[in-house]
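User: Some background: our group keeps a shared notebook of sequences we're curious about, and every so often someone picks one and asks for a predicted structure to add to the entry. Today it's my turn. The entry only has the sequence so far, pasted here. Could you supply the structure so I can complete it?
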Amino acid sequence: MEPATLTLAGILMLALITVESGGAFLLRVTTGGHPANDLQRNWYRAGHAHAAVLLVLSLAILPYTDAYELPAWAVWLARSGVPAAALLMPAGFFLGVLGQDPQKPGRAAVLVPIGAAVLTAGLLAAGIGAIAAGRP
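Assistant: Of course. Here's the predicted structure to add to the notebook entry:
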């Protein structure tokens, strides 16, 4: 594996620690230790789940990117698209419901669809790169 790939893998593994601490926060919310309305509880759950799944997916895709024979920008997108989505989407879920008792998501919720678009682009690049690398 390339040194840059290993470095990113290490960063992603360490980022999972933030998901772990987010789980502790979510536990406080669900047990009543931190006040939250239904909207906040649902969005906190979604943010936590997206962060965990996308970070693990990032780690699963990463080793394959070293074999891609794509333009440098496409390899960069394949390598960083899913990790970027792992930041953007949960940030939208958490920041979108800040406040004492929000009745609807705030402006930061726009990070969710932006993250989804980045996720799609990263997965497209990764999928195309894997198919291209596997062809004789």
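Suggested note for the entry: The mean pLDDT is 94. Helices lie at 3-30, 38-65, 72-95, 111-134.
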